[in-house]
Amino acid sequence: MEYLILIAGLAVVALVIGGVVFLRPGRRKPSPPVEHAERPEVPRTGTTVLEKEDQAAPPAERAPPVEEAPVRPGVEIEQPPPGAGRLVRLRARLARSQNAFGKTLLGLLSRDTLDDDAWEEIEDTLIGADIGVAVSRQITEALRTRVQVLGTRSVEEVRALLKEELVKQIGPDFDRAVRTEPHGDKPAVVMVVGVNGTGKTTTTGKLARVLVGDGRTVLLGAADTFRAAAADQLQTWGERVGAEVVRKEEGADPASVAFDAVKRGIESKVDTVIVDTAGRLHTKTGLMDELGKVKRVIEKQAAVGEVLLVLDATTGQNGMQQARVFAEVVNITGIVLTKLDGTAKGGIVVQVQRELGVPVKLVGLGEGPDDLAPFEPEAFVDAILGDA
């Protein structure tokens, strides 16, 4: 009997010890590791401040994803040269295209005998340079009178006479300053208008460089929403000089882009907002409605100080027709003549000013980023006539 009790006790002890051992943590047989497929690394163009803040926030507080343009790596901000003296520095570009015109005139005026045929040839040369018939006749008559009074005609004297007459016709008294100074707490606003293909968007970017070179802060508005390439092009120009660009999707309301650009310019306290507008010329009525709306919307926040019309100097009379349409649609305050280095007809400066009654304020003299220059009549005429 005692023997049976002893066996039963040993069995109970064994069961207790076995249960403890079985239930102890860490004694389970470890599960085999689960192999996860390695996630491919997705190339990124940079993490924005917004994304960093979003990642740090609890899931419930995270903002919805924001669509934004990718940050392009490796874009260095450039410091362009100032605007003052640019035309003098670019004089060689003008001299190459315009010098034949100047040399022809100087050669004709320096002849020993100036008969009626010679004066007619002088007038024809002026007309051929796109100065216009009426103005060419005025210049010829003024030169004829002064040469007869002067008597002798050295090259230096003829050059001085011709320079004086040309500068007079170009209009030295025009106010050619581009109004880009802020008004109190509001930025200056510049609208750039013109037909696509004249260099309008490029001019907007180059003007930003001129202003940054002069120490101004600039914001660009990509209101030409009918061409995606225009906004992309403006983005590139802005990145190079550190200027913010306000843009929207292709086909968005141009007036909405202009409004947001000026609003952003006020908030960020920039000196100047430049708005690039669409250049379609389907009908005068459509153009008027569109540009008028853009201007009205901008002026709800800030005054439009400049409306610059961009013209291609190589298009001649076709460019003049475009200029007339825009002049009827919107109050133009100044003209930008692009590709002036690509034509020998520099007289378009005189013609377009007389036609529209507004000054040429800027000229484009090449494909380089800093080839836009403030227009200076005397430097322009000096380049045409070359050295005496």
Automatic annotation (TrEMBL):
GO terms for biological process: SRP-dependent cotranslational protein targeting to membrane. The chain crosses the membrane at residues 6-23. GTP binds at residues 194-201, 276-280, 338-341. Residues 27-83 are annotated as: Disordered. It comes from the Bacteria. The keyword Endoplasmic reticulum does not apply. Residues 359-372 form the SRP54-type proteins GTP-binding domain. It is a peripheral membrane protein. Keywords: Cell membrane, Cytoplasm, GTP-binding, Hydrolase, Membrane, Nucleotide-binding, Receptor, Transmembrane, Transmembrane helix. Its main location: membrane. GO terms for cellular component: cytoplasm; plasma membrane. The keyword Transmembrane applies. HAMAP family: FtsY. NCBIfam families: ftsY (TIGR00064). Part of the signal recognition particle protein translocation system, which is composed of SRP and FtsY. Involved in targeting and insertion of nascent membrane proteins into the cytoplasmic membrane. Acts as a receptor for the complex formed by the signal recognition particle (SRP) and the ribosome-nascent chain (RNC). This is Signal recognition particle receptor FtsY. The lineage of its organism: Bacteria, Bacillati, Actinomycetota, Actinomycetes, Streptosporangiales. The gene is ftsY.
